[in-house]
Design goal:
The protein is mostly beta strands. Helices cover 14% and strands 39% of the residues. It folds into 2 domains: 228 residues, Jelly Rolls (Sandwich), CATH 2.60.120.10; 82 residues, Jelly Rolls, CATH 2.60.120.
């Protein structure tokens, strides 16, 4: 069997009525859609499974790779837990309109209702237009009764915590937390492999036929975590040329890495695949299998069988997110 190498995938463009064109202009995505709202970078979701774009495995999809390479691709402990299902979904989202207010159920509720995993996720803000907002959680203590009262009288927004965002802001969204991405907030999203979403409120918008979009009021009520925090934004301080942890939970760990010199990485102890999401700059990955060039906007999967590698910037600083499962 040939040696595994850093894998690139063809992005999957999802056309959305609220989508824009920054995925093309800022991140060099190639698509013909008029409004690409989401670019699915690495996906094992049925119906939208990523296909390899480089090397001898080009044309094979991610599900096939997991089935063939198992722990060599994803890590032994990851394979033991998830089997042939790739456990994370990586995407970029570019909204030119406010997205609906949503909540995602946790693993237990998703299993019971949908025979699926729950959805814990995080956002890293890649680009913003002036005044762009993100909602995460509530702006005051809220219980079930208060929530229902505000929802029924059409003033739910008055209970929600909105932050004006800037590039580099991070929001961790555990399953159960009410959230919404506002127009102009372009993010990269790292999430459990799950497409279970409960729509709570959609600003009374209608589709092209004049119909209101479906809401999941009752389903959402049982899924919401009414815990209140003073601040929902994740704080972190990057250290040059070192991985800095920004989010760590049982579903994924995400580090930020800003580097302007060659760095050697040793992933032996984590026993997991590693994903690089390139936010700024271009670089090379050097492994025993050879060298792979990575450009701004590209996402790459490092198989778990690659313990040691070098990353080298090409002409200046590189900023990327480094994702794996601990």
């Amino acid at each position: 069997m040939n040696t595994l190498y850093p894998l690139k995938f063809s992005p999957i463009c999802l056309e959305k009525i609220w989508g824009g064109n920054r995925l093309k202009t800022l991140l060099n995505k190639k698509y013909d859609a008029k409004n690409c709202g989401e670019s699915w970078e690495i996906s094992g979701v049925e119906g939208n499974i990523s296909v390899v774009a480089n090397g001898f495995l080009k044309g094979n999809n991610l599900a096939e790779l997991v089935e063939i390479y198992m722990g060599d691709l994803v890590g032994d402990k990851v394979y033991e837990k998830f089997g042939n299902e790739f456990p994370l979904l990586i995407k970029f989202i570019d909204p030119q309109d406010d997205l609906s207010i949503q909540v995602h159920p946790n693993d237990e509720l998703s299993k019971e209702r949908h025979n699926a995993f729950g959805k814990t996720e995080m956002w890293y803000v890649v680009d913003v237009t002036e005044g762009a907002l993100i909602n995460s959680g509530f702006n005051q203590p809220v219980d079930r009764e208060k929530y229902i009262e505000y929802l029924e009288n059409g003033s739910l927004i008055d209970l929600l915590k909105y932050d004006e965002v800037k590039v580099g802001d991070v929001f961790f969204i555990p399953a159960g937390r009410v959230h919404a991405i506002g127009k102009g907030s372009m993010v990269t999203e790292i999430q459990q492999t799950s497409d279970v979403t409960y729509r709570i409120f959609d600003y009374n918008r209608t589709d092209e036929k004049g119909n209101l979009r479906e809401l999941h009021t009752e389903l959402a009520l049982d899924a919401i975590d009414f815990s209140y925090l003073d601040d929902y934004k994740t704080k972190y301080t990057p250290v040059p040329n070192k991985s800095t942890e920004i989010v760590s939970c049982k579903y994924f760990t995400t580090n930020i890495l800003e580097f302007d010199k060659t760095i050697e990485k040793d992933y032996f102890k984590i026993d997991s695949f590693v994903i690089y999401i390139t936010l700024e700059g271009n670089f090379e990955i050097e492994t025993e299998a050879g060298t792979e060039k990575i450009a701004k906007g590209e996402t790459v999967l490092i198989p778990a069988s690659i313990d040691i590698l070098k990353i080298k910037p090409i002409n200046g600083k590189v900023k990327l997110l480094e994702v794996y499962i601990q």
